[in-house]
Specification:
With 282 residues, the chain is mainly beta. The strands form seven sheets. Strands 20-25-21-22-23-24 form a six-stranded antiparallel β-sheet. It has a five-stranded antiparallel β-sheet with strand order 8-7-6-3-9, with no helix packed on it. It has a five-stranded antiparallel β-sheet with strand order 12-11-16-15-14, with no helix packed on it. 11% of the residues lie in helices and 37% in strands.
């Protein structure tokens, strides 16, 4: 396993993905089965325990390649979009059905059992969730599973947001949650990933991975060198430069997504012993 990022490598001492044959040592290699998240979201953890650290979340409709499902109700696999590896509840997954046709644009939308907004919702889906549409009915799109979702809150699957910064701004006030990636709670890199992906820029999950993307920007404290949308990195942290001297980020100081003067953030983070590592432009 030397040289492999364990976060992105589906290999354990006892089991590995077939595509890693010849690259890693394991007594058993498996092809894996494509599954789909059917819950509102599926927490992905380092070990098969609800008390294990939350690494990230898979959104509704997201595909997961499952390499093992144990008798305790856990599945070990790899997220198809960003490659993250870990354990998810087997109850949150089902065999892949129809290919998603639509994506949620609102921070959160309700799923109704019929075309009536007064009916008690049966679920809610967060920004970026995907689903397959069966038909249109009045002001709703009817999902393959029968749920009714307001047309105002969704877009076709290939729709691209024009401005990832404005997407990130929609999350202002959302609680900070380590490993979170929904409008119920998210962390700094989760916010960046959601915003960039919505604009058509594939983006890895963690800030150190994101720091390898895009092109470097020379920044020596002069904000004139920065452009709207630049990503500013500290050790274990990332945020969007929004222009006009402001930084937008999910952070533990505010315990929320907040927009604040960049100079104030730099001073506060410097007081904790951390300096800006790099600025990158997508």
């Amino acid at each position: 396993m030397s040289g492999f990022d364990k976060r992105l490598t589906p290999a354990r001492p006892d089991l590995a993905a077939s595509y890693l044959r010849g690259q890693v040592d394991a007594p058993r290699f498996v092809d894996g089965e494509i599954m789909q998240v059917i819950d509102v979201s599926a927490p992905l953890r380092q070990t098969p325990s609800p008390e294990a650290l939350l690494d990230t979340e898979a959104l509704h409709g997201e595909r997961v390649i499952v390499y093992e499902a144990n008798e305790e109700g856990w599945s070990w696999g790899q997220l198809a979009r960003d490659g993250y590896v870990g354990w998810l509840s087997s109850n949150a997954l089902a065999k892949q059905s129809a290919t998603p046709t639509h994506r949620v644009r609102a921070l959160r939308t309700f799923v109704f059992p019929k075309s009536d907004i007064k009916s008690p919702p049966i679920a809610s889906l967060s920004f970026g969730s995907e689903f397959a549409a069966k038909r249109e009915e009045e002001s709703f799109i009817v999902a393959e599973n029968g749920g009714f979702i307001a047309k105002q809150h969704i877009a076709v699957i290939d729709f691209r947001e024009s401005d990832p910064v404005e997407v990130a701004r929609r999350f202002l006030g959302t609680p900070y949650l380590w490993g979170g990636k929904t409008s119920a709670g998210l962390d700094c890199s989760g916010l960046v990933q959601l915003a960039l992906q919505s604009a058509g820029h594939e983006c890895p999950r963690d800030s150190d991975m994101q720091q390898k993307n895009g092109s470097p920007v020379s920044f020596k404290g002069d904000e004139k060198a920065l452009s709207r949308g630049d990503l500013i990195f500290w050790k274990g942290h990332v945020g969007f430069y929004t222009g006009s001297g402001k930084l937008l980020h999910a952070n533990a100081f505010h315990m929320a997504v907040a927009e604040e003067p960049l100079a104030e953030a730099i001073m506060r983070i410097r007081a904790s012993g951390l300096e800006i590592l790099e600025v990158r432009r997508t």
